[in-house]
Amino acid sequence: MRLCSELGREIRDARVRRGWTLATLAERVGLSVSMVHGVESGKPTMPEGYVRLALALNLQPRFTLLGDQAATAARAVDPVHSAMGEIEAEQLGIPPVLVRIDEPYQHYQFAGRADLVAFAPATSALLHIENRTRFPDVQGFAGSFNAKCRYLADELAPRFGVRSFTSVTHVVVALWSAEVLHVLRLRGASFRAIAPDDPGSFAGWWQGQPPTAGTRTSIVVFDPLPGGRRSRRRWIGLEDVVRGEPRYRDYADALGALRRAGRA
């Protein structure tokens, strides 16, 4: 992607002008060295990653907006990610529930987009979903997701015409693949710290019964395709991942299945 390459060169040039190593910059912004190197090489990352780097290097505010555009473009070329959002919207967006895809937000230096948000007017409940097809950088993901959990609800409340939400449910919905299960098992303590709650609130949303109180943050692995024996369970929570069998080998396997089903 041309835009990501331009951003990467600007970051690298600014870092070199300061005489910083990759490790120095990574430590200052709280990201991994591999993630910073990837960004400098033109690899897309989440908007919060660009924001952190821009602030640390004293780059112009326009840079953070370009970072948001780059991350949005990166999601647009991920057909499995897009299919997951579409399928979730079909399940959750039954009136009067309102569903929005790729919803932007900005809170001072934090800027980004929520993959999917749903609002239940009857109970003023909010659901926030972050879809993940892979976890190449757990630390980078944690920084992005934690910022949204902290600021997103306050930023969205005025848009939905409420002073505050009676309940807020944050959910990481990860692809039910062997490569994702491997990372979740390998970094289980990290993911339990990021999303410590059971997926009961998400189950309520999925069944058309949004919770009426509380804030919950959880992780589930999700099979975007129903049918056959896969219809038994559409998703499982983090605690079931240890003994869960993958539905797909990897991203390519899931993409092939979605294309055969006409969903990607």
- For the secondary structure, the number of strands is 6
Count of distinct structural domains: 2
Mean pLDDT value: 86
Taken from the alpha-carbon principal axes, the silhouette is globular
Distinct helical segment count? 11
* Termini Cα gap: 21 Å
Uncertain segments are none
- Helix content class: 40-55%
Order of helices and strands: HHHHHHEEEHEHHHEEH
> Strand order within the widest sheet?
1-2-3-4-5-6
Largest sheet: 6 strands, mixed
User: What portion of residues belong to β-strands?
Assistant: 15-25%
Q: C-alpha Rg, in Å?
A: 19 Å
- What structural class do helix, strand and pairing data support? alpha/beta
Please write out the topology.
Layout: H1 2-18, H2 22-29, H3 33-40, H4 47-56, H5 61-76, H6 79-92, E1 98-107, E2 110-120, E3 125-132, H7 138-156, E4 167-175, H8 178-186, H9 188-194, H10 200-206, E5 214-222, E6 235-237, H11 251-260
Parallel strand pairs: 3-4, 4-5
Antiparallel strand pairs: 1-2, 2-3, 5-6
Helix pairs in contact: 2-3, 4-5
Sum this structure up briefly.
This protein has 264 residues and is of the alpha/beta class. Helix content is 47%, strand content 19%.
Describe the structure.
- By secondary structure, the chain is α/β, with parallel strands linked by helices.
- It contains 11 helices and 6 strands.
- The mean pLDDT is 86.
